[in-house]
Amino acid sequence: MKLNLLGLAEFIDYEQFAVTAVEKNKMLHQGSGAGNDFLGWVDLPQRAKEELPHIIEVSKRFRKNLDCIVVIGIGGSYLGTKAVLTALRSQIPMTTEDPEILFAGHHLSQEYHTQLFSYLKSKNWGIVIISKSGTTTEPAIAFRFLRTSLIQQFGLEESRQRILAITDAKRGALRSLVNTEGYESFVIPDDVGGRFSILTPVGLVPLALAGIDIGALVQGAYNQMENSNADTPFKQNLSAQYAAARYALYKEGKGIEILSNFNPALHDVAEWWKQLFGESEGKDQKGIFPASVDLTTDLHSMGQFIQDGTRQLFETAILIEKSESDLILKEQDSDLDQLNYLSGKSMDYVNKQAAEGTLLAHKDGEVPIIRIEIEKLSAFTLGEIFYFFEKACGISGYLLEVNPFDQPGVEAYKKNMFALLGKPGFEEETKTIKSRLS
Asked: Which one of 64, 300, 322, 330 is the catalytic residue?
């Protein structure tokens, strides 16, 4: 993995924040900053290595004979898993041992879940329910419906063997249900927040069930952890450099970061990234707004704004150096589409030239460019990317002087929703909201 900041030279001097970024990195390792009770992710790659054998053993047993597994979760409980599956599943030959992975409980669409329930009637399926408390509205509703369907289809006793829970070690409604029904379960660590949980059982168990090489994923993260430890100099610490660059741009009025890619396989990596930075930094009227585009597709929709719109944004591009296959354009007698000049070139070559041309145009349009370059798309490089961004996010939050590990703003919509739904304990809020809506 490489980080190229050369495109920033004419815009900012990010090295002015080098010393501060290194200090913030040390704070993460020392646990001396805000939110220090949620820093378990800092050394998580090492802890994950120790848990891998058990996860792999249980996953092999659970997925046996299943052709479909529904993963129920929201936010950090599904975004990391979906990011890896979107990136790698098309590269892994489907076998009879690789079940289809579907998602539920990440929104409240009745149409989606109705279609899902109908689809599952002809499947040999199981459930992975991910929830710290077991009472988060979206996944709890989905689990109630899906558990009922599973029992109706396979019976109470058989359904117990088809439900795997990932939840709190001792507390919560889901843990109580696990203890009552005897479901197989894994623990969500108390010191790791949801958006940092990809290397806990939250991400590793569903990915192992899907046939992903979770050992390679963890190893990639481990390597990045080793390269950004408390004693790593700024010149070698890519996460610190990225955080310093973002902060320098923010100080110059660049309040929007666009994460761009030129491979649709990275679409859900960007979705995971948006939650990571949006939920971590957007506090106290501070933070960089995270957005994303899939290029070249979005050049035909968002390209005009990026090129000529308000100059409040900067762009971070993830680029893949090597493709796993080649589609070669061949010369045709009739050159009606005027593509013969590309004869002998691969589609990947064309895509790379499009990427270089696009980034050059954006830079000429006064958009600062950060380049993240990975050799190829694999479980290992995704592990590197996840940890790189997580560490940078922690440093960046401390540079902004916010607590990057809480999410007080998320509670506002929940309070209003519970009041509108008439949840017990929210009677006063119900009266207030109804008067505001009348």
From this structure: 300
